[in-house]
Amino acid sequence: MVKKKIYYFITTFFINFFLASKVFAESNSTSKPAYGGVWGVTILVYFTRKFMIGGWLLLYYCQVYGGLFFTIFMIVLSWQDYLPSGWEDKGLYGLFIISTIPSLLILFIEAIIASLLLQKRNQNSHYINFLKKVLITAACVDGLSALIDAIYFPNNFDLKLVVGVVNLFWFFYFKHSRRVFFVFLNPSWNWDYEFFKKMKIINTDQIVSSSLEKSVESPIDQEPSTQPKEPPVIHLQSQESATERLEELANLHKRGLISQEEYEQKRKVIIDNL
């Protein structure tokens, strides 16, 4: 148990160290502010893992809202860079717009969808799948932006590349996360960390929330039953064979080979076995 906790803490620290680059890229600041809070974030993620919106999911929301805040802040400070009047080379201006505006728009869309997911009525597979599409689109757009930056704006290449990899990371997180499955795809379940720990890794692409909510219950919601469970009744007769038997029975009755009373009794038996 102690080894697992140490492994979790170390892994969290190094991944947080890497993911901090996204805020760094979006804030256009120096690396020290971006990485200075890694220890704090790691401790926060580790000690909140037992909460429903905790652990890696909490880190995702911190990153989304943090990145959105720094992006808006930097746009306010450098809004003149987005005007064509500040560029002598209009071709470079066009490439700058292509490498920045789509990423900004996707970030705003991502923040909106992530916020909607926090509302219980929106916690279903539709919004999760939409968010995954936004994340994979963001990774592709960031890859294109990194390619443009590698040729025309080399100072921004490393940062754009890291942002793309981070978006790809979060895509796979929402695709395979147990916490996403528990919190967002089954909102009717009561949060139980011990039950959550025992869950196996799943693929959220194959989840249909409504059917799971009807067919699966969390152990915390189940009430012990004092009455023995009756074995299920298994009917081996298919619909097709039943139809054939009804037709044959009607034919026998029509030909006068069986009485009306026998016909009604046998017909009831066939229908009851469906």
Please tell me about this protein's structure.
The protein is mainly alpha-helical and 274 residues long. The protein folds into two domains: 2-215, no CATH class; 239-272. 69% of the residues lie in helices and 0% in strands. It has twelve helices and no strands. The protein has helices spanning 2-27, 31-36, 38-47, 55-77, 90-117, 125-152, 157-176, 178-183, 193-197, 209-215, 239-254, 260-272. Helix 5 runs antiparallel to helix 6 (125-152).
The number of E-state strands comes to 0
Secondary-structure element order, N to C: HHHHHHHHHHHH
Helix content: 55-70%
Radius of gyration in whole Å, from Cα?
29 Å
Poorly predicted residue ranges: 1-10, 20-36, 208-222, 229-239
Q: Describe the biggest sheet?
A: none
Class from secondary-structure proportions: mainly alpha
Q: How many domains?
A: 2
Distance between the termini: 53 Å
Explain briefly what this protein structure is.
The protein has 274 residues and is mainly α. Helix content is 69%, strand content 0%. Helix 4 packs antiparallel against helix 5.
Helix/strand layout:
Blueprint: H1 2-27, H2 31-36, H3 38-47, H4 55-77, H5 90-117, H6 125-152, H7 157-176, H8 178-183, H9 193-197, H10 209-215, H11 239-254, H12 260-272
Summarize this structure as a short list of keywords or feature phrases.
2 domains, elongated, mainly alpha, 274 residues, single chain, 12 helices
